[in-house]
Specification:
21 strands, elongated
Length: 691
């Protein structure tokens, strides 16, 4: 995983850490140790950084891995002229500074041996064990001679699958890419740009999702310098021109220390300069920057409760900017990040952003999954039958990624879809009505929820209820929503091409595209267009099981509410000597009374038959009208008339006027119609239908 020489990003190395002289390390690597009983000089920096996090670490295995790596890479040089061993040493030092445990550092020292030397995976496994072997294999590239142009996407696919079983694989890859980006200067500009774009589109989002902010921010600055050199130069000059900007934050930090000291809260208050990309984004957002915009205050405390104590003191003694408050302790980000964010105004009106977290939270915020150490050290991880290990640290987004990548038919689709998936950098949680949760990217719709929950079975999804209310499949879900997905019983039904307009997750898009490709006859069908309501008419006999207190009058049942026994009813005389009978609750009754019409008493006769109008609300699908009509006939009702309105957002309203032999059978008829797949509601008419 070679890369090359000097870098425009040397500025972004964290302050307080000395620059390591790689050329001196290279010479030490070639000369070897002064004696056999001590660690080689070249790996001394790694040992010191590792012992800072793990004081009792056994360095013997690192010594052994270094010797193998040095011997294997001896005679190899980077394009910068440095001995090649400086690269695995630098990668390992990056991980050691972040707090990686010994197994990760061992694999990091050896990560290029199988790819670039004669060392085999079997040898690595025999010397260092299965875990180190797995990590080295996970970051080993696939050969271009075997995969051609597909080598890069297929290498990433292989690496992601390996990460699904052990997140330490991606930790090594991120550190490897960081050192390569630091030393990219001797390569041709076009190759620098190509590597920087892949870093921007794939590696930086992965670093963000794994919570490794220390690597992510430096990678962002390095990519910024290569892909946007003019904006980078302007930002660099802006920071240089405001070299004393930190004084404004330092003054506020002293006030914060005093306030917390007087409150009896033990806290460490630090000024953290913003990195270049952060300054650039702030300038685009706010225009002209003030001194306090070039950094933030970081307050570190011992316990979670102290975080809220600090927050209370700051909001009491300073003027808080309420819109800037965010609580990522109570609701952590999906990448393990926890912190309180706020902003306060000083006496001169300058606003300072403040991050409040515990020391442990800070460690995780900087190092992410690297700070977890060995995910198997305290967890009994069973070996599934297929031999894959289930990683207890696997986040939900990674599980979803691993699911859809299996269905990606070719490297180009995988590569394009991976970049699109990683571009969605915020996650929401929705709750299933039957229990359980679904993690989805922000902007996901009911279509995405259906495929996340049911996989291929979601092809027959008809609609959903969101927070108890009926919703179309295009409905965008919010964090905390409850969703109930409605599936058709007909397994032959499938998605329409319009679903692709609503799908945001790769799993949904790939599944829909695959189904449409397998059923080309459905793709060419024209989209539903407005059409005149379909009306089926039968015998229109007058209903007259109602007795009115008006001799000789003709009785008509109102079409707006179609009363049936034993409804409470009333009547109103109309032209032609007829009386129209309404249910008491019908809105038309109030209108008639408002017009001064006098009601007529109505009672029910002994005849059991009745006529009723029902509305059936459903999702559009083939054969729905036939199945509804069959359910009506099976219930013993006769269709007097039926109309189907044009579909609106996949929803269809059917209006049926039915003749029943007995009004007592109405509840059973309504239940039978509701049981038809795709029908979500059946109700009595109570006002005239509207399109």
């Amino acid at each position: 995983m070679s890369a090359e020489a000097t870098s425009p990003g040397a500025h972004s190395r964290r302050r307080g850490l000395p620059r390591i002289d790689l050329r001196r390390i290279g010479r030490a690597a070639l000369l070897g140790p002064a004696s056999r009983d001590r660690l080689p000089d070249a790996i001394g920096h790694v040992a010191d950084a590792h012992r800072a996090h793990y004081p009792d670490a056994d360095l013997a295995v690192l010594h052994k891995a270094y010797v193998l790596a040095e011997v294997s890479h001896r005679g190899q040089y980077r394009k910068s002229g440095e001995p090649y061993i400086t690269h695995p040493l630098a990668v390992t030092l990056i991980l050691a500074e972040l707090g990686a445990e010994t197994t990760t550092l061992t694999a990091s020292l050896l990560h290029d041996t199988v790819e670039d030397t004669e060392v085999t995976l079997d040898q690595v496994g025999a010397e260092f064990g299965a875990e180190v072997c797995y990590l080295v294999d996970g970051v080993t590239k696939l050969e271009k001679v075997d995969y051609g142009a597909a080598a890069e996407p297929e290498t990433f696919r292989k690496m992601l699958v390996a990460t699904g079983n052990d997140v330490r694989v991606m930790s090594i890859k991120l550190a490897d890419r960081l050192h390569n980006m630091r030393t990219l200067g001797v390569m041709r500009p076009e190759k620098q740009a190509r590597i920087a774009k892949v870093t921007r589109d794939v590696l930086i989002p992965l670093a963000e999702r794994l919570g490794v902010q220390a690597l992510k921010t430096e990678l962002e600055d390095l990519v910024f310098a290569i892909l946007h050199p003019e904006e980078y130069a302007h930002t660099r000059a802006l920071i240089a021109d405001n070299a004393t900007a930190g004084d404004a934050l330092a003054a506020i930090s002293e006030d914060v220390r005093r306030v917390l000291r007087e409150a009896g809260i033990a806290a460490e208050v630090l000024v953290r300069p913003r990195h270049f990309v952060s300054v650039h984004r702030s300038r685009l957002k706010r225009g002209e920057l003030r001194g306090t915009d070039f950094g933030r205050l970081l307050v570190l405390v011992g316990e979670d409760a102290d975080c809220y104590g600090v927050l209370g003191e700051l909001h009491t003694c300073f003027t808080p900017v309420i819109s800037e408050f965010k609580d990522f302790i109570a609701a952590p980000k999906f990448n393990l990040y926890q912190s309180l964010h706020t902003a306060v105004a000083g006496p001169d009106g300058a606003v300072a952003e403040v991050l409040i977290r515990t020391h442990q939270m800070h460690k995780v915020a900087e190092a992410g999954v690297v700070a977890l150490g060995n995910p198997y050290a305290s967890v009994d991880v069973a070996e599934p039958a297929d031999g894959e290990r289930a990683d207890p640290t696997r986040p939900g987004w990674l599980s979803r990624l691993l699911e859809w990548q299996e269905a990606a038919p070719d490297p180009d689709t995988f590569w394009t879809t991976l970049r699109a998936d990683l571009a969605q950098d915020r996650e929401i949680t929705v709750f299933r009505a039957e229990g359980g949760m679904l993690g989805l990217p922000a902007g996901a719709t009911c279509v995405d929820a259906a495929y996340a929950q049911y996989g291929a079975a979601a092809h027959s999804c008809l609609g959903a209820r969101v927070n108890g209310r009926l919703a179309t499949l295009s409905t965008v879900l919010g964090d905390g929503d409850t969703v109930q997905l409605l599936l058709a019983q007909d397994a032959a039904s499938g998605p329409s091409p319009e679903w692709l307009d609503h799908a945001r997750t790769p799993a949904a898009r790939i599944a829909i595209t695959g189904w449409l490709a397998a059923h080309p006859e459905t793709v060419g069908l024209p989209a539903a267009t407005p059409r005149k309501p379909l009306t089926v008419s039968a015998d229109r006999r007058g209903a007259a099981n109602a007795l009115v207190d008006l001799p000789g009058a003709t009785v008509r049942m109102a079409g707006c509410c179609t009363p049936v026994p034993p409804d409470e009813v009333t009547g109103f005389p109309v032209r032609g000597g007829a009386v129209t009978v309404h249910r008491q609750a019908c809105p038309a009754v109030d209108r008639m009374r408002a017009l001064g019409r006098s009601p007529v008493a109505v009672s029910w006769g002994d005849a059991p038959g009745c006529r009723v109008t029902l509305y059936a609300e459903s999702f559009g699908r083939p054969r729905l009208l036939a199945e509804l009509t069959d359910a009506i006939a099976t219930a013993g009702a006769a269709v007097v008339s039926a109309s189907v309105e044009p579909p609106d957002e996949q929803r269809v309203r059917h209006t049926y006027t039915l003749e029943l032999p007995d009004a007592a059978g109405l509840p059973g008829l309504i239940r039978a119609m509701r049981d038809v797949p795709g029908v979500y509601d059946v109700s009595r008419a109570h006002h005239r239908a509207t399109a």
